Amino acid sequence: IETSGNDPFIVMPSAPIDVVARGAAFSAYMNCGQICVSAERFFVHEAVHDEFVEKLAEHARAIRVGNGLDKVEMGPMVAEKERTRYEGVLEHAQQQGAHLLLGGGRPAGLEHKGWFVEPTILTGCDPDMDILNNESFGPVAPICKVESFDQALEYANNSQYGLGACLH
Fold first, then answer.
1. Can you tell me the distance from the alpha carbon of 75 to that of 33, in angstroms, rounded to the nearest whole number?
2. Of 12, 92, 133, 144, which has the maximum CB count within 10 A?
3. Residue 65 DSSP class
4. Which of 166, 163, 158, 141 lies closest to 61 in space, CA to CA?
């Protein structure tokens, strides 16, 4: 059965941050984040949080957005309705206190062509925020800082969805 996904991605200090950040970008932004096993909730240990965010941002900035027939890594949202829904998710997350670190808009030159959006990173996320408790189904990495593996696991397991998970 398809049970939906709001897949957690846990990053601990023992992880090779360069490798993990690249994997995180792939998992969050592949197919514009519209895959049921896309990483949608990031729980990052405080000891490596800043380094991870910096490396993830480097990878996200390098993503070329556009028509899949060109040399790009990320195409559009599936429909205008989905893009509008997703933009509302990002706006609501910011209203709840998330900090928009990167992205959040429409790519320059593609604002009026197709349903393109930028790879997005939100920091300062709280485990009670809607973006961490509902599927975003778009190219966003909402990052929640954690103090321990146990806390990350607790937050990751606190979901009504269950399809996949990543632990590094």
1. 10
2. 144
3. B
4. 141
Report whether 87 contacts 67 (CB < 8 A). Answer: no
pLDDT digits (tens, 9 = 90+) for 126-161: 999 999 998 888 999 999 999 999 999 999 988 766
Beta bridge partners of 39: 7
- The whole model's pTM is what? 0.92
Q: Which residues contact 164 (CB under 8 A, 6 or more apart)?
A: 5, 7, 36, 37
SS3 at position 101: strand
pLDDT at residue number 18:
96
| 82-119 core/surface letters (b: 16 or more CB in 10 A; e: else) | bbeebbebbeebeeeebebbbbbebbeebeeebbbbbb
Alpha-carbon torsion, ordered 121, 123, 125, 131, to 10 deg: -10
In the chain, what is the greatest distance between 2 CA atoms, to the nearest angstrom?
A: 45
DSSP string, 40-56: EEEEEETTTHHHHHHHH
The pLDDT tens digits for 83-126 are 999 999 999 999 999 999 999 999 988 877 889 999 999 999 99
Q: Quick check: 164 pLDDT over 70? A: no
